[in-house]
Amino acid sequence: MDLDISKDSLAVFAALDSDVRIRIIQLLSKKRLNVSEISSALGLSSPITLMHLNKLEKAHIIRTVKKGKQRISVLKIDTINISFPQQLYTTYENWKVELPVGQYTNFHVAPTCGLAGPKGFIGKVDNPSYFMDPMRSQAGMLWFAKGFVEYQIPNYLKSDQQLEMIELTAELSSEFPFSNNHWPSDITVSLDDHLIGVWTSPGDFSDTRGRYTPAWVYNDMNQYGLLESFRISKHGSYIDGQHASNTLISDIDTDKPSWTLRFEVKSDAKHVGGCTIFGNKFGNHDQGIRSTFYYSEKEDHD
């Protein structure tokens, strides 16, 4: 489950604010239980236990399965990721660019692969030829088992400006036929062949529906990813604030009209688990691939 610091996440935070409900989660992490079994384990009455179960179900942490007259509780998730608002400690001017996920300029992908738009699949799935379909610009989600996709990010830097830092955010997950919540994948991210870092996605998630995923997408298809931050600075490159490579902002050629951003799953990676990129109107974050370029004015030495 992917959360942010907003009112949309309050139901989950409220559900976790209870020793009893934490204990219920611990019990359900081992096996499915009915109301009577949970009540007995907790030493609580059935009505009180049901109250706690209803709050957990409302927060999409558990689900209920009916078996005859019994109500069986099942844990839906095993991970909760919380994204906090990010703030730079140094104030710089900046410009932003957001690319649709279908606006890639180069690719080499292997099945399973495909593109999805607001109303259905774009072309045929598991056929890389359709990655050149003219409708690909409308894609809100793309996926591939291994290979890469590349995007061109425009360089708007002026001659009297100094590039200080680049920050990229994208919603990513692994790729497995339909989905697999436990399917690690090493996704390599680079800019102009400079390694930013390798992020290991924990899985291809369908434990709950994506906040923006269209209704036509099947429940057992990949529903959402994790919003990942990739940063190139004077001190190195970072993924979610953790040092990931020695690429420096000074390594980036600022005289070029554009830079090549690549998302890749290498065939020799430790975890070859594919890549899914979520864009506008898909997943849990209504955004494409966002880039923020921080710059300062060059000092005048005349």
From TrEMBL:
SMART domains in UniProt: HTH_ARSR
UniProt-listed PROSITE patterns: HTH_ARSR_2 (PS50987)
Protein known as: Transcriptional regulator, ArsR family
GO molecular function terms attached to this record: DNA binding; DNA-binding transcription factor activity
Keyword annotations of the record: DNA-binding, Transcription, Transcription regulation
Gene3D superfamilies: Winged helix-like DNA-binding domain superfamily/Winged helix DNA-binding domain (1.10.10.10)
Pfam families for this protein: HTH_5 (PF01022)
Highest rank taxon of the organism: Bacteria
Domain HTH arsR-type: 1-95
PANTHER family, alphabetized: ARSENICAL RESISTANCE OPERON REPRESSOR ARSR-RELATED
